[in-house]
Amino acid sequence: EVQLEESGGGLVQPGGSLRLSCAVSPFTANTDYVNWVRQAPGKGLEWVAVIYHDATTYYADSVKARFTVSRDTSKNTVYLQMNRVRAEDTALYYCARGGLVVTEPHYFFDYWGRGALVTVSS
Amino acid sequence: QSALTQPASVSGSPGQSITISCFGTSRDIGSYQYVSWYQQHPGKAPKLILFDVNNRPSGVSNRFSGSKSGNTASLTISGLQAEDEADYYCVSYTMRYTYVFGSGTKVAVV
Prior knowledge:
Helix content of chain B: under 10%
Mean pLDDT of chain B: 97
Oligomer: heterodimer
């Protein structure tokens, strides 16, 4: 069974940095891709970023140039480095595996972690 | 990247059918068959219920079905059950290689 587990959440001051981790099991480096999705308290879901099997990355406009997604295939782990955080970045951050049909990305999210809470406050 | 537009709430009686619309643009829903739907119960992670407009993952009830026309996607829940009470979100892949979620719809079984 596919499992994703986020870690690294916590309280961070505005303008500060935090790194979230997402452990993926099992992880197939040459096909799997992983997304980050966040949900502010009482609000809807917002897509944040994706890293594809070839390490290509894309970001939502709201986090571009502040957040960076990366991966360590030897550790089956994907990271979300959050810099220059703002109050509006306060949310539960989920990592979600990208869906494949056979071995091709079909751009959906088939397995989700339980989320890591990030609170930006002074 | 504005969110796709969904009705804030939809309600129905047990056994009825309801439809949730998801309005996008030619840059997302209108350009791809990559529309998916997610169900989220309170305090839980979202769960995939449809992908590629109208494909169900293994284990998802056939009471869930989807369609797409132009820039609009729809989710229909037939034979509404109490357990269907949840929030529902549509998602589309976009021409900017990103993804956009819908604003979310709260389904009430009354």
